[in-house]
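Researcher: I'd like a structural prediction for the single chain below. Treat it as a standalone chain; there are no partners to consider.
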Amino acid sequence: MTNSTTGAQQSPPLVEFKNVSVVRDGHRLLDSVSLTIREGENIALLGPNGAGKSSLIRTITREYYPSYRGPDVTFRFRGRDRWDAFGLRSHIGIVSGDLQHTFTRGISGREVVLSGFFSSVGLFLSHEVTPGMEQKTDEILEFLGVAHLADRPMTEISSGEARRLLIGRALVHDPGTLLLDEPTNSLDLHALHIFRKTLRKIARSGTGIILVTHNLHDIIPEISRVILMRDGAIQEDGPKADVLTDEAIGGLFSVPVHVVEEGGYYYVTGY
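Model: Treating it as a single chain, here is the predicted structure.
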């Protein structure tokens, strides 16, 4: 499960946006966003609900397009102005709450992971599962500590277990980056602890992490860069220790806070 990031600085950025705005149904979802992400980077995208985080992710995955195109607008993925979802999946594995809802049905954990090879929800008769796919699935289940869930239906496991299986589905193509949209929603303390350990293991294996969240405590120690978003715009972008300050976080969420670092994790108090 190791991905090498050697030479990442010489290759085109994974994502390169400049002055990207998205307007849908008369609402400005993104406001002149400029952002560069390199393959293998560990990044947290932090902001309150409605900040535009999910809209930015949908723009990366080409569900949304810039509303204005011109010489001052850059909209590229790995150096290209055009890309498709099929080509995207070998570089970015995506796990979201919507995806988990879609997979809440009576299919097994193994089938969930195998379906990643076909970008489907479960397996169908037309899908030819090869021995290589089976072996890769076994490796992923073992790596994520969910081999015991291989034969369990998704309707009979916890939210945290389901999330790890969906991460497995996203990893079948060995993407250089794993994108997680609000991954700890609905997790209790035990599930959160296990999920953090899983995410840290993935980051240490060399897979880049883009973590989209509104919770500071989701930001694992391996994440070195934090981007703050509000009202569809990027407020700050920089090294974690420089961005996660009382002033910046208090302003982002419009509440007085004190940011505390403990064991590589950041928490807020005083609100």
